[in-house]
Every structure is written in structure tokens, then in C-alpha cells.
Specification:
homodimer; Phosphorylase Kinase, domain 1; Aminoglycoside 3'-phosphotransferase, Chain: A, domain 2; 2 domains; two-stranded antiparallel ribbon; 15% strand
């Protein structure tokens, strides 16, 4: 259960009075989600999702809200925030920063086919292209600096073999010329549970709370590591080719991106191995984190070190 | 058939390259619509509608495109335009001004129940409330001045009885104090064929090309005259009450609006009687107008003159 803050019907009905979305018909808490309290809200005019922000600082919220508004403005299926009658996205409800967003249709998919991966690759490229004209900037909060810092914090908590792998890998990654790669706004967490499928189409991409500016190739690697990996951690060739070709159709790869693709896959694997180790050994108080197995991403990292991934040739 | 301008697959695929909506999968002309050429467009990322504007002047289009963007921004189900990579809504395709909008789901309804009319009343109020913060202005193109001018043009073409009714009604309406009524952006054409139903909810409100600033009460009267009228032209009490109560729940009626409600119904009836007479007797060349029976709105006008409509009392 992930509703951390209760909302009363009276308070919500009154709060909706600041919007032009009609009267409250019904609402219910949403079980999924670990960072915020979310509610499905139905009014006389439509279906929305109410989010009470539990952990993101209020000052950081405009970046995310305006980003999804910008992407929706460019035709992408993201949870666009609804402006109130004063043209504001962010309000306060039950003592928390609160926003209303459009409810998207669709459901998660656990076993994607290459055809699904084609859609995901095209969608990620669409996000990257539309993000180029987004005016606000913040650094990707799980970038190279974060990875180095978290590694220091978790090293005392892991076994000798893991510590050695971590140190060696960080040192190797520090020598790669990631800085010269094309940058932009990245989603940074485009996992299967952040994409809603409406039949064969993507009905929604959600959860932009790790977004920020970083290399586009890193975002692609995060996405491929989740959508195109087999149980042993190695890449599924068909799904990976489908996703990468669809992405490359929209935004042509640079030569430097081709060279650094294996390194990007390793950096992306390391990022999630580190955060999972941290969630396991150093949980933050007051945050309800769903602890996921760190070894899944250790396996992926090792498979990427051993593997020979490459971006598809030009058509 | 209402596709006036042809689009080739190659041209459309190239044109979509200016957007971040993925690759063209398929497209087809839409039969409905009398003013523009419309196409359903499916890309790898979603479903859209392409409009080539055939009759609206290019200079007037930003008012409509930004209006629907503004209303969507406030959470209302309208066809929001998609911005291209340069953040522009309006492009050129096949030599016509062209825009891509989000495709809405739902279908028209010919026989609304009071429950449907409740939704329509709430939606119209939502449009009026959200419209209050819209920054651009243009006069409603079918306002009192247009009605007086068109009456002059059509008078020579109608019979003596109709001419007498027209003259008397215009003279009576000119004496009503419409100017002191609350004003704002009105849709001005919220007929049944401009509302798409997605089950019990309104999935979309379309066709804003008569929108402009005028009295909100006039818009309400246009809507009631279409949604709540029986075959003999008189008001259906249950549907009318449902629509007006739902609207009044969102925006309380002023005393002046209560006094002028019968007059607003007559002005709204006259507006469509006039435009239908004009379409019948003075069709504009180059425009494919679906000629509708003027007598339907003559009957409604006469029924409103004879009737005793009133806005619902406060709850």
C-alpha cells in the first residue's frame, strides 16, 4: 500500500474547486508507487490522477511538472499536469505539495516482444527529440558524480568480491569519454513498469522523477538493460536490435556514440546495481522503498563487461 | 466526403519529421467535417488527427490553436495541437495551413438523456471557467452585429411571414440589455455532433472555429437549444433542468442572467435560423456546406418566444 497521506472527500472536493475540471464523483488510493501518494480521481468532466509529493522537494517539482507539460505539448503520451484557474500546476492538499494530472490508459507489460521494443525505442527517441526544446535544466540526479559518491558509501557494506568489481568498474568508467556524447533531457528510468500499453500502442510513459540532463546514450542503455535482457543478464539480440533500430530511425547515432555504447550499457547497469545495494543496506528513513534484488543488476553488469554489444549499422 | 485537399504519403511522412511523434504508420481521410480536410494519422508513437485548413484564414488560426492548447492545459478533453520541434503549432502541408492534434476517443450521440445533459452542462461551465484565463481575444464571429448584417442580406430571399418574424425578433432583441451579461470565451457551437462520448464520460469537445468572446449565457442557450429540444421545438424540461443545474453548480447564475435567459434562448435560436437561411439561399462558393433545414431553428425560435424558460433556482 503506497498511500502515505490521507485525503478526505471534503478536502478534495474543495481543492478541486480551484480547477475547471468539474465536481468530484469518486476517488481511491493507488497501490503502486513508492515515492508519492497517488489517487485516481473521477470528476463530472473526466478521469485524473492526484499526486501528493512525499519525498521530492517542493522547489524541485516545477522542473518535473513543466517537463511533462512540455512533452505532452509535443504530442507524447505523458501525464500532463492540469493547471488550476490561476494557471498554476502545484497546489497544497493535506499539507503536501499536490498536483492533478491527466489519467493515461493502459497497463504494464512484463514480457515484451521485439515489436514492443520497437515502440519503446521510437518513444525514447521522441522524448529525447521533444526534450531538446525544453527550457528548464537540472542535472540528472543519478549521474556519474552520484555513482562515485554512492559507491564510497556502500563499499563498507558489500563483500570483498563485490567491492573489487565496484572499484575496478568505477575506475574503468572514469576513463571513458562520456562527456563528449550528445546530451539532453533524459527520463533515466524507462523501465517496463513505467510504460503503460494501450493495445499495441504506448498509452503512457510515467514517473519522470529521475529526469534531468545527461547523455542520451545513457538513457538508451538504461532502457535496453531493462527491456532487452534475458534471465542470465545477457542481451536478447532480437529485442535489442528492434529497440535500437527504432531509436536510430528517429535520431541517427554519432560515431562517438557507437564507440561508447558498451561503456554506456555498463554505466547504466552500475547505476541500478548501486542504488539497489544502497536501498538494501542504507535505506532512507521515512521512505518506503520497494527493495529489489541488487544481484539482478550485478549479473547485467558482468554480462555487459563480457558481452560485445554494438549499435545497429545505418540502414 | 470532406477531404478537399489530397496529401501524399511521402509528403506526410516528411512533414511529420518536423515533429517528435515517431514515424508514419498509416493515414486516412475523415468523412465528417465541412470546413477543413481532416485525416486520422497513426504513427509509431500514437494516434493523431491532421487538419488542413481550407477556409479559416491563416492569421486567425493561432487564436483557435492556442485556445484548445489552453483548455487542454486546464484538463479539458479538447483536441490539443501538437507542437513541432520548433515549438510551433502551425505548419504548411499540400499548400495549406496544417496542424496536428491529439486524437480523442468517443462517438457522437443523437439522443441524449438527462444524465448526458448533466455532463454537457458541467463541461460547458468548465470551458467557460478555464477560458477566463485565456490571454488572446477575438470577438465571437456570429455575435449580434453579424446577426443584424446577415438578416439584411437574407431578407430579400425569404417569404413575407418569415421576413416579418425576422424583423420583429431583431428589433426585440436589440432592446435587451445583453451587454451587461458576464462575458468570456464561448465555444458557440456545442452541438451534439461536436461532443464525443467515451462511455458515460465526455471523451472530447471538438470544432472551436466559431469560438470568441461573447456572453456566456448565449453559449449556454446555444447548447440548451440543441441538447434539450423536442421535435416540436419546445424545451424538454428534464434535459434542460439537468444541463442548467449542472452548469449552475460550477458557475452561479447572476440575477441579470436569470432575467435575460429567455432572451438568450431567442438570440441563440435566431443565430442558427439565420445561418441556415444564408447557407440555403446564399451559399459561399468554394465551401462545401452541409445544408441543414432552417425551419428546425424557426420552430425553436417560435417555441422560445411562446415558452416560459427560466434558470433553476439556487440549491
Amino acid at each position: 500500500m503506497s498511500v502515505f497521506t490521507a485525503v478526505t472527500e471534503d478536502d478534495l472536493a474543495r481543492w478541486l474547486g480551484d480547477y475547471a475540471v468539474g465536481r468530484l464523483v469518486s476517488f481511491e488510493g493507488i497501490a503502486a508507487g513508492v515515492q508519492n501518494s497517488n489517487f485516481f480521481v473521477t470528476t463530472t468532466l473526466g478521469r485524473y490522477v492526484l499526486t501528493l509529493f512525499e519525498t521530492v522537494a517542493r522547489a524541485d517539482l516545477p522542473y518535473y511538472l513543466h517537463l511533462t507539460a512540455h512533452l505532452a505539448h509535443h504530442g507524447l503520451p505523458v501525464p500532463a499536469p492540469v493547471a488550476d484557474r490561476n494557471n498554476e500546476y502545484l497546489g497544497t492538499l493535506s499539507g503536501r505539495p499536490a498536483a492533478l494530472v491527466r489519467r493515461l490508459s493502459g497497463r504494464w507489460l512484463t514480457d515484451p516482444t521485439p515489436a514492443h521494443c520497437t515502440r519503446v525505442g521510437a518513444m525514447l527517441a521522441g522524448l529525447h527529440l521533444a526534450g531538446q526544446s525544453y527550457g528548464r535544466r537540472q542535472p540528472h540526479p543519478r549521474g556519474a558524480q552520484w555513482r562515485a559518491e554512492v559507491a564510497e558509501r556502500v563499499l563498507p557494506h558489500v563483500g570483498a568480491e563485490d567491492a573489487e568489481l565496484l572499484r575496478t568498474e568505477l575506475a574503468w568508467q572514469a576513463q571513458q569519454d562520456f562527456d563528449a556524447l550528445p546530451q539532453g533531457v533524459i527520463h533515466a528510468d524507462l523501465f517496463r513498469d513505467n510504460v503503460l500499453w494501450d493495445g499495441e500502442l504506448i498509452g503512457g510513459v510515467i514517473d519522470f522523477y529521475f529526469a534531468g540532463t545527461d547523455t542520451l546514450l545513457f538513457d538508451l542503455a538504461v532502457t535496453v538493460n531493462d527491456w532487452c535482457t534475458m534471465a542470465d543478464g545477457s542481451l536478447d539480440a532480437a529485442r535489442s536490435a528492434a529497440l535500437l533500430e527504432a531509436y536510430g530511425d528517429e535520431r541517427a547515432y554519432t560515431e562517438h556514440e557507437r564507440r561508447l555504447w558498451p561503456a554506456a550499457l555498463r554505466a547504466a547497469a552500475l547505476r541500478f546495481w548501486l542504488s539497489r545495494i544502497e536501498d538494501l543496506h542504507l535505506p532512507r528513513s521515512g521512505e518506503m522503498v520497494q527493495v529489489k534484488d541488487p544481484n539482478e543488476y550485478r549479473r547485467i553488469l558482468v554480462a555487459r563487461i563480457d558481452g560485445e554489444a554494438r549499435l545497429p549499422d545505418r540502414p
